[in-house]
Amino acid sequence: MVDAIDLGALRARLARVGTLDLPALEAEEIAVLGRKQGELTARLKALASIPVEARREAGAALNALKGEFEAAFAARRAELVAGRKSAERASVDLTMPGRARWVGSRHPVTLVIDEIVAIFRGLGFSVALGPEVETEELNFHALNFPPDHPAMDMHDTLYLDQGGAGTERLLLRTHTSPVQIRTMREGPPPHRVVIPGMVYRNDPFDPSHAPAFSQVEGLAIDEGITFVDLKATLAHFARRFLGADTRVRFRPSFFPFTEPSAEMDVGCLLCGGAGCPPCKGTGWMEILGCGMVHEQVLRNCDLDPERWTGWAFGMGPQRIAMLRYGLPDIRLLYGGDMRFLNQFGGLAG
Amino acid sequence: MKASRTWLEAFLRRPLDAREMAEHLGMLGAPVDAIESVGAELAAFVVAEVTDVRPHPDADKLRLTTVDDGSGTPLTVVCGAPNVSAGHKYPFARLGTTMPDGLVIERRKIRGHASEGMLCSARELGLGTDHDGIYTLDTDAAPGTPLLEVLALGDDRLEIDVTPNRADLLGHKGIARELAIAYAAPFRLPAIPGEADLDLPAPARYADEAMVGGVRLAIVDRAGCGRFLAAVIRGVRVGPSPDWLVERLESVGSRSINNIVDVTNYVMLELNQPMHAYDAATLAGPAVMARAARSGGEALVTLDGVTRTVPEGTLVIADAERAIGIAGVMGGEATEVGEGTTDVFLECAWFDPRRIRASRRALNLPTDASQRFERGTDRWGAVDAFRRAVRMIVTVAGGTVDGTTVDCFPAPVHPPRIFLRPSRVAQVLGVELSWTEIERCLVAIGATVVSKPDDGRIAVDVPGWRPDLVAEIDLVEEIARVHGYQNIPTELRPFRPGLRPDDAGWEAAERVRTGLAAMGMREVMTMSMRRDLTATGPAILNPVSAELSHLRSALIPALIEQVEHNWAAHTRDVRLFEVGTTFRARAGARPDEALHAAFVLTGARQPGHWRDGEAAAHDRWDARWAFERLVALADPTAAVQVEGDRWVAVRGDGTPIGWCDELEADSPPWAAPLFGGEMRVAVAASEPPRFVPLPHHPAVARDLALLLGAGRTVAEVVALLETRGGKLALESVAVVDEFRGPGLPDGRRSVALRLVFRATDRTLTDAEVDKAIGRLVSMLERELDVTLRSA
After folding, report:
1. What's the rounded mean pLDDT across residues B235-247?
2. Under DSSP, is residue B185 helix (H, G, I), strand (E, B) or coil?
3. pTM for this structure?
4. Half-sphere exposure of residue A163, counting CA atoms within 13 Å on the CB side?
5. Exposure check for chain A: N or C terminus, fewer CB within 10 A?
6. Cβ-count burial of B325 within 10 angstroms (0-12 exposed, 13-18 middle, 19+ buried)?
């Protein structure tokens, strides 16, 4: 039988738990629940010696009481700790600044390139790279630029000073498209590559031009690829890159290495389509050039255009970075002013 | 190409809205870069009625008028025009109005009387050269009505960005054809106002020689000049053009010269066929021929008054003695049509685009004509353009055609015929178009479908004004364009992914970028061309500027410049990195291209904090750690070594691939030391790390203060401990302190090392560790003369 009076004494002690200070609380915890001398522990151990018929009822009562003690001790402890913390904090000004660490960041153009590349990798493209010094053959001829054609005027080219040596004329690639040729000549289709890289033009620096800038191109070659695939994939890209409700349109254009050729416009990133000076009031902004890979380009890579078709695109990450981040001058992107770079993630400094 | 809305309206015979046209042209592949409102400078002018005219008391030639400008307040305006009279309406500039010539109308006294505005003449409004007083308006409009609502002089000038393949869009007719597609409306050539009743038979066909109006015409260079139509018109009166012609030219920004030259310019702007008129009296022979310039070149004064030497082989127009024009580029001054001209020789030719391009480049002389010939003019449509020009000359300048006109066409050819398979249209566009739709698209661009589909293909005769259409795929593009890109579906269809892995160079660059940014550095992307006095980088033949004369051979110089720019902006704490391509010139071969990564560090190690004060500046030991991280990221197979007084990264095979050092720069006195490093990034795929099981037994750490003699390096001590300590359960060695100073024997320094011991199978006892340390210490003393400081 469990002693009712004894339990009464324990209950009285339970009622006093809420008044104890921290040292007394710890002592009382040991005195009641301690594994060796704890009063309640001893009573639980003693259960083994009482008759089975009485044990069930007594055990239940003791275990319930144990639970109540545990809860009371935990509650009083939390109350005491919280009180001590708030007393400490009363003397601290928590509005004082935290201890900063330098934070690094990627360049805004790298951020844009990475994002574009990531979206196309998700669409089954892999990254291809190529040299920045190229031959006329790969930069122009293989890409169906007819020699002595006004199309060449679109690319004001920088040539290497070879001092009369070497048979092949070397230039700084004017676009990343030579990597398309390299890809197609390297192995059989299907091809699905995205090509980031630096390109060069004989354009002096001004607020919107630079003599060297980045490009991201893409190329998809397989059987059965059509203009529908081009439109759908690039529209999908635009909505992943700029937002699910981005408006997209395709306009006819001209590039020597694609036919049919197109420009893809998106709803103006600045005015949202209402019309503003940067979009010339049209509500649209040209974001990339694209087209079906020209038959002659396929032939130049020993691919039969009756069997293989494909599409390609190219865009300028600097221009996109300028639009996205509201930059007034492309030259900011070529500098290292910490006050500029600090705006692309992290704390000031 | 500048196009006039009203000119296009004359083709389509309907009013057009400039913005809507721009939208349509853009969707057909000819984007409009700008729309300029012609007449916009007259927006502020109003209609005013003169209610009273009285003499000016102090000036005979001036009048005082009372003007109603609709404002309700009668204005007093001083007017000098003889034709001003009460009850008539005139264009009026209120006070504050800016005149087309830039003058602002202000209140001012003219001979003692204030004038509150200005009644304007046509000339003052920029509307012609009429000198006879102010412009009397024949209108019912109330005073105060904007002038532009009364005068039908508003026009819009469209600046069209014509792609290099589209020769035809350099004439209004070509643009009108595109608009006819957009509006599904017909179009035709505008009538010539007051056209002379002229019986003009078709030009007589010849091969390469003919007589025309007493002038001998010859095509000597048959490769360069494929067709030459000519007429001699005698008895013309050279003078100003009629208003409609002047206005047409001015509507697209072309200045009127005289009636003959204006006709040739008009036809060029309308039909994309440049022409040239010569004063027939100045032709030696008289003869005109198209030939190559003679050996040694030929000198010629062109219409712009410049003496030019035309290189040998350039296609020129010549008379019996000399070159009189650079074919397709610019005519000569000596044979120019001027006021005294009575007889005109008219040239209308087709020149090989490549020859004209060569001429233009050789002489660096781009002109309206060369731009058109370079893209290719319509060698079949030239006949219609020529006949139109002859009719217009007779209409606006009088005269008669001497004899018959001639057409030298040495090797007549037809426009190409292309076979088109509708199955190919579907294969490329991904959409099945009906026969009817395909035919509609082809007819819309002016092609002729000459046979009906039987063997799965149709024959298409391409129009002469589209020299860009030579193959089936060109027609596929035209069909897509006319059908409308917006009408082709946008549905994502199944695709096969690419087979190749990502380029290892891309992954390496990304790995380095991520790693260096995580170290608190900011990425930059500096210009990859720069001046290079050492010429390690390849030189550029035609650099953009002297500052961009070479490709860079290293990244660090540009990073140092960026630090200096930051210093100039009073930024002291700078941490930059770059990952990019560098170049090395190789004689007679392609330059080496290598991916490099570099960093620079200067200023505080961390931002200051109020609890700690300013943080110390980066020192060489920060730089060393940054370099070690860079090496680990860029080439894990390389090791950092000391070389002289700097660190280098060396590959297993001994190849040095990077360095780190304190850098020299143009620094202000308050700047902290600058450190930097650069290395070549290995583009091979990196090995993934291998898991090492976590230890089960505790470690024992012991600190040792060791005395190192002069010239003895910590690296030697650590290397010896690491090689020999493995057997003794030595897990790691770390440097925890260094002390130099008096009290240490014979120039030695004290270095404190923390040795950590751990066994994989048991807990080490103190006795075991003591024994191990004893053996290691005696080994150090024996082999490196390194002793315990306490000993």
Report:
1. 91
2. coil
3. 0.84
4. 10
5. N
6. buried
